Amino acid sequence: MPRSHQAVFVPLSGERFRVVYRIRGSEDQAHAIARDICVEQTIEFPLELTPVGDLRDHIVGRIEELDRLDDSHWRVVISYAVETTGFELTQLLNVVFGNFSLKPGVRVEWLDLPPSLARGIDGPRFGCAGLRARLGAWRRPLLCTALKPMGLPIDRLADLAYSFARGGIDVIKDDHGLANQPFAPFDERVQRCADAVARANRETGLTCIYAPNVTAPGDAAVRHARYAKSAGAGGILISPGLAGLGVMSQLAADDGIDLPIFSHPSFLGSFITSPDQGIAPGVLFGQIARLAGADASIYPNYGGRFSLTREDCRAIAEAAAGPLAGLAPIFPVPGGGMTVERVPELLEFYGPEVILLIGGGLHQHGPDLTETCRDFRRLVERF
Amino acid sequence: MPRSHQAVFVPLSGERFRVVYRIRGSEDQAHAIARDICVEQTIEFPLELTPVGDLRDHIVGRIEELDRLDDSHWRVVISYAVETTGFELTQLLNVVFGNFSLKPGVRVEWLDLPPSLARGIDGPRFGCAGLRARLGAWRRPLLCTALKPMGLPIDRLADLAYSFARGGIDVIKDDHGLANQPFAPFDERVQRCADAVARANRETGLTCIYAPNVTAPGDAAVRHARYAKSAGAGGILISPGLAGLGVMSQLAADDGIDLPIFSHPSFLGSFITSPDQGIAPGVLFGQIARLAGADASIYPNYGGRFSLTREDCRAIAEAAAGPLAGLAPIFPVPGGGMTVERVPELLEFYGPEVILLIGGGLHQHGPDLTETCRDFRRLVERF
Asked: b/e string for A7-29 if b means 16 or more Cβ within 10 A?
């Protein structure tokens, strides 16, 4: 039976996408690992039992380039037939890194995807331009903060939202730890915070949006997002590491939701904490978040409480904007221990196409939150 | 405004769950990191600005134990109020490791969860006993294989399914790379393979089940699972690292699906490839897969193509069976490069409460697949 495997019957287009991997090892090891990637990520089957023809020649990955980076690291480019992905997000990621995530010494460094992949991968609904249109802010960097801490009752969270909106913040997101806890149940919290922001907007004439955290298991995230829409929220926050990248993409594609999506990095850190394993931060927070429908991708900035480097952050910003299957560019959202004092440096580093997220740091800046937000906004408008 | 934060208004039950972390560093560093975990995983807010009372005393994590493991590693037990989880899977995982996944040097080693958490976390629908009842196999280890390679046309996949079922395999799963590609579209493939297995069952009198891969973005996974049910599939395969742990739990809770769930480790490897970061394999493939509704959890066995140790695999099997919020035990499913020759050793290691997964290895064993399956089954029945 297995010896008589036949070739695929549906002709392949010949179009391929390319993945850049960084491999640790000697030159011989790098070649062996590269060949292993080609098989493990596709047929996952003994090559000697695999029939010649389309299956072995086109379904199996193909080594396109293999270059030395240093004595123990190699850059290899492997191409795959676009049809292996079924033109859907989850299977694309499965081909890119599914089983090989379980083997040490290989990191995904870049995705080079043709527009044909976007046939079934919608990507961001708004992107930078769409989000700017919703906010009426065309050129300047955007301002974001978070409602926190977890444990505050709803009226205190709504008061905070009002203060932030009065001070000129563009996007007020829930802290990603605000879920549906008994001390601040989702529905009531979202309605009250959305109302508080709407009241502030009426008073200021500004267009601040509130983005509640809809992260929840399976279709509970969809229910939350629809409720958020009905309550007047102007965006949604989701942690795709918890809810699933595919769920985020479903929210982005849902015409009944039609809200900008802010992606949070919670639970995704293990992909990026080693230079010799996982997924490069630019790929994860730039390319993959974008493929999965984020309009803005939050990540821990260099020099904060977390461990990304300036180069990582540069790569994320570039990946958020660069060519990717014809999808719209999205915003990088550096956060994680940022302060008002660092705003000039951050603007210098990122330029205008950025959303600056300051959470706890706003509370530490001074006693009047609204005034602090106005300081934050002046720094950005001066840019 | 921030200085006037009030305590939570909803009284907490006082019940707490416990997480064991392994921390790398000096003793002083370990204490500092442990304190940081308590704050980062809950309020994520400057402690000095956090109001005294319930919020600071009960919402913030609490260090319960801190012990030396060796010169540079520490075991710390931190407890959290059960209410912080909102009694849902995604927020539980967010409290356990959400933001701290982004910091190096900390690994989740164990979850100690009280039954109250199962209020909103259903876990496995079948568990070991339910799956055994469906298969009518009460004591012996169970046999599993995979339809592969990706790229075969549907009639060849259906032929393989028939051969495996004739040979006495209990569970025939799709290879996790079979999605909805043009060379083997989901609906037709599932119907044809389910029919082939049903035909074999009529001939053998056995109760082999076919578990197609329903991994897909968002509710496409639900559609696939419902289609699988209607086509006569006896189980489903899903990669929660791609589709989302919450989506798997939704499938488990869906009375309209009501099929045993086989969880695949694709894309989850970055959590387990470092001893100093991520999530211990026992927690990820044992406890978390079980919390998220898997009835059987596939993982790369020691001595195969991947890198888990015997101790890791022992921990997974123990975590699949041990106390966990009152949830039913589930099956460990070691795979990834297993062979028929290794069956006696695997049975010695795991005992009867295991599903042995041999994929490509069945094809390498001999020219007649059905005979190979019979050899495989004889080895297991002799145990």
From this structure: bbeeebeeebbbbbbbbbbeeee
